[in-house]
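A favour, since you know our structure tokens better than I do. Could you add the entry underneath, on a fresh line?
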Amino acid sequence: MVVPRSGRQRRLTGHGYAAEIASVGATLRTLTFDGRDLVVPFDADEVRPAYRGATLAPWPNRIVDGRYRFAGAEHQLALTEPERGQALHGLLVWVEFEDRLVREDRVSLAAVIEPQAGYPFRIEVEVDYRLDADGLHQTVTARNFGPDRAPWGTGPHPYLVAGPGRVDDWTLTLPASEVLTVTPKRLSPVTVESVTEHPEWDFREGRRIGDVFIDHAFTSLARADEIAEVRVVAATGEGVGIAWDRRCPWVQVHTADTPAVASTHRIGLAVEPMTCPPDAFNSGVDLVTLAPGEAHAASWRIFGISRPAASGRENAWLPAQFGAIPRPERRAARTRRTSTSG
């Protein structure tokens, strides 16, 4: 049997949703709701483009220069983003995951990060996808199987699709009051600032994205019943959302700019809840440290937004918790400078 380039395929269905999970990188390859795409898909026999749908671990986003110091030792990672000289999106994006559980509405996959140059720790990573009436739930669980404490972070990499058009046409609601600024060429972290100082990145009141470029991490998230939620809505009123709890105090948003390739330019909005910010292995901000034998889990959920009914109210299947008035987190400690590389 010939295995597709993206690995073994597992299809989940239920409650109007259908998802296809590829075993390489425990990747969300497709997700639809009532027959329309909620994420930018790719073909099963295609090498996954641009980290689309990959599970990011043991760190999300960038480690500047691929270097960090942990427990008194210096480590150098491979520079997987060579054009910027950074180590990008962890060590599992091209790893084949094995099946742990396969059902019609749920699949669990697992892989082990073996000790290696730059990351001499043994971590088992289990990725669980589950469909219900509230959407597609993903949970990433890490277990430290090694003898030493290990640095850890994780997050997903879906490119959300609201509906017709492209990113410029959609309305974004992003309940974040602070943004991590970055250097212009290498996108290395600089400092956390209020979005009031950068109104182009202030989407606390939903508004059309337009031609603004975004490739930034956001924090100080307003939450309702402990849940933060980002929504992306098309002019038709239909859309997509992603929600997560306090285990992810950060979210990376990227407008998927590829001006040299028209077919992929701004066709989806990357929205990536993260347990830690970019370069956390150096800054230590919100970095998880796993003791030997310890486990850590983080989860998020992608859901469809139906076109509003004639009354203007959205369909009742959306969780009632998202109707509460959100209150922002207080994250004054995040305002310190994290890096000046770039």
Summary: The CA atoms of residues 50 and 256 lie 9 Å apart. The longest helix spans residues 280-283. Helices lie at 280-283. The radius of gyration is 19 Å.
